From TrEMBL, chain A:
Keywords: 4Fe-4S, Electron transport, Iron, Iron-sulfur, Metal-binding, Repeat, Transport. GO terms for molecular function: 4 iron, 4 sulfur cluster binding; metal ion binding. Gene3D superfamilies: Alpha-helical ferredoxin (1.10.1060.10), NagB/RpiA/CoA transferase-like (3.40.50.10420). It comes from the Bacteria. It holds the Pfam family Fer4_8. This is Lactate utilization protein. GO terms for biological process: lactate metabolic process. Residues 300-330 form the 4Fe-4S ferredoxin-type domain. The keyword 4Fe-4S applies.
TrEMBL record, chain B:
Gene3D superfamilies: NagB/RpiA/CoA transferase-like. It comes from the Bacteria. This is Lactate utilization protein B/C. InterPro entries: FTHF_cligase-like_sf, LUD_dom, NagB/RpiA_transferase-like. It comes from Lacihabitans soyangensis. Residues 92-191 form the LUD domain.
TrEMBL record, chain C:
PANTHER family: LACTATE UTILIZATION PROTEIN A, UNCHARACTERIZED PROTEIN YKGE. It comes from the Bacteria. InterPro entries: Cys_rich_dom. Coiled coil: none annotated. Transmembrane segments: none annotated. Residues 3-84, 117-211 form the Cysteine-rich domain. GO terms for cellular component: cytosol. GO terms for molecular function: oxidoreductase activity. It holds the Pfam family CCG. This is (Fe-S)-binding protein.
Amino acid sequence: MKTHSEAAEIFNKDFDRTTWHDETLYFVRQKRDKAAFQIKDWELLRETASSIKNNVLSNMHDYLLQFEENAIKNGIKIHWAADAKEHNEIVYGIISEYYKGEIPVDTFKGMVKSKSMLTEECHMNEFLAEKGIEVIDTDLGERIVQLAEEPPSHIVMPCIHWKKEEIGELFHKHLGTEKGNKDPQYLTEAARQHLRDKFLTRPIALTGVNFAVAETGEFVVCTNEGNADMGAHLADIHIASMGFEKIIPQKKHLGVFLRLLARSATGQPITTYSSHFKKPREGQQMHIVIVDNGRSTQLGREDFRNSLKCIRCAACFNTCPVYRRSGGHSYHNAVAGPIGSILAPNLDMRANADLPFASTLCGSCSNVCPVKIDIHQQLYKWRQVLVQEGYAPASKTLAMKGMSTVLSNPGIFKFSGKVGRMLMDKLPFLVNNNMNPWYKQREMPEPPEESFRDWYKKNRKK
Amino acid sequence: MSSRNEILSKIKQNQPDLLPLPDLSVLGTEQYDLVQKFTEILEGIGGKVLQVSNFEEIKKYIISNYPINARVISTLPEFSENKDWQIADPHKLKDADFLIIKGQFAVAENGAIWLTELEMGQRVAPFITQYLAIIIEKSAILPTMHQAYEQIGMSDYGFGVFLAGPSKTADIEQSLVLGAHGARGLVVFLV
Amino acid sequence: MKVALFIPCYIDQFYPKVGIATLQLLEKLGCEVVFPQNQTCCGQPMANSGYEHITGDCTKLFQDNFDDYDFVVSPSGSCTLHVKEHIPLKGKIYELIEFITDILKVESLEGEFKHKVGLHQSCHGQRGLKLSQMSELNAPFFSKPEQLLKNLKGLELVTLDRKDECCGFGGTFCVAEEAVSVRMGQDRLADHLKNGTEVLTGGDTSCLMHMEGIIRREKHSIKVMHIAEILNQAI
């Protein structure tokens, strides 16, 4: 697996495409600004949402119990999964049980799924595929990356890295659209027809969960396309997968989050559909799988627990100057971008040790976050943890220790500064080569005649 | 069941000390010309808003804008006496062209309309139909989502939705296309 | 007013002119300025790389040098922020611009600087020290650096397409993530070039060093000056 910086270097080889990717996402950031600035109480709304989520984290146990009790009363079946594997097994078990252990392989058509980053995190599609159950992603962007056999590169706009010409080509190959047609209207219509057939023939629908209300036992799913509803209202079984942190205390709190979510995500005043599922349709089964998968561990990390406040709007992606110029796949995690970089190390420190360093700590992410997660502060703190847990390269540790020695000894510092400047002045080839990443595309600073302290001694010191 | 208790006990052990819930009463103080704001916002997200004075005007509009042979379904007796579709297999609605229903209330700040399955006839109906028309009373437009949830209160439903405009996607290069999976068009009649 | 000058290590070694301008500017504004001789670095390069735990000696040295002063001033938003957040001092540290506007209470400066100036908002100065309003927030506009620049005769402040995007320096990020770092710098410069910047300025020499490295490699005609140099030259 490539590290973020290795993948980003490859991404940046195509200059124009990087420009396009950056500008497309910055445009979304601007739409977010415009929508946010139309709400006079925007900052108060963020503060309120943050406080609600802080309360949720502090009362998680009781809210989950309350949610479970109410959902069961509503006729929903609740399952608990400690990790990704258990989640996938539960989903398989629900299907298997519905068919009394004998899934009719010949006639069974599988599952339609609307966007659920959690199932990406759990690699559920692959798991079910191995069991012979086909999962069709029904969000247009997700269907595109699924046909291309890629993971999504963005949690709200899964194929933001794809150009329409390429999508035209992909649809020509898989859906039989006319060759060379890249018109978004035409391609979307083709996907509509293709997926309508799936909605009408799949007996199982899986959706994510945006919010689960403890007070009432209902859950809310937000989409623009209507794919969650097309799936859920036609299927015999509706399975909803949720990380336990999706819980909110009361229904009235939805007012706060629904005002923030779409405006932060895409600049829309609200998503087209904010669907409140409370009871199964007559004759239908409704299941909720509540997943931990490391979240309870994160809840116990004081410095990092508030990453669990995230409502997955991806505003931090769109504003992040590094994300925009490196693409979602360079983060090698289901959730990319700044928020992904503080969530991923909790799942696997070794595999994700590079991610908290894929940031300049500019802080824009924390400023756009609708629930006020201190994302850039957590990036800084993860760096400390990762180094102390031994996930930094030895060469880097050596260099840092050397630097620390020089910088904490004024005598050595004064001497090495002079030597450094002299080296660059007299022997520029020593540093001006491609072994020095600074010099690849940038000139070194021109070494001055004397340091400030030397000047000061001559000119000011009595 | 073992995972349940394990997860819950770990959460109990790891959650921080209790923090209070914030006061929501300070939010939602926006003052709008409700009809104007709702119209402006809904049209901005692809919906169409028409002010009408009676059902006859609505009927006239539908006849002149949609083909004669379209399959029109409605929960309102003024538009269709047939109620069979409401208890039929939802898959049978796949060829519904036009659904006309009444919304409970609407929200000015975001153009959303609150519907529960009672108004929908069938849960899938407002999604699977090609085109959707919703009738809203002008007096039932609320300023923000805070008033909206106050209005909903603890009323019971199996399924409810805030619906704002036609189905849409911008997944292909951020180009807005209406009619992704749900209704291709939404017209709201304000009475 | 007596102030102790903290000149970050790379300014001392590579950009002494920024230190000199800072000192002269503060003197012109009526301060008595001293430079504690044994200062080196605040430790930020290590801390931002995940090595905060080995910065103890740096911190101690910093305190030894500066604990005798009520006011410590530095021409670097980034280093100032690090000291504020990580090094307890008996006095208080200020970034140069905020010291002039908030402590010396200078409303505006009289002088002349006949150039089109593009202001780079360094992230740590802006979002960290809140030297100016941040584009992400729905909050009233203010800008401490603009407050000092805008009344200079002949100075025209350039309006950028993206007024506060990061330049991509980011400490060790600039070498660890070289490709993205350079691309971010190039994009910042493209914005300045498009909008007519003649002199690129800012409160952080690190950001300026990074962008100057690209300017010189790509042979752009933009001149780079720290804001202290402009103010010191103008008044």
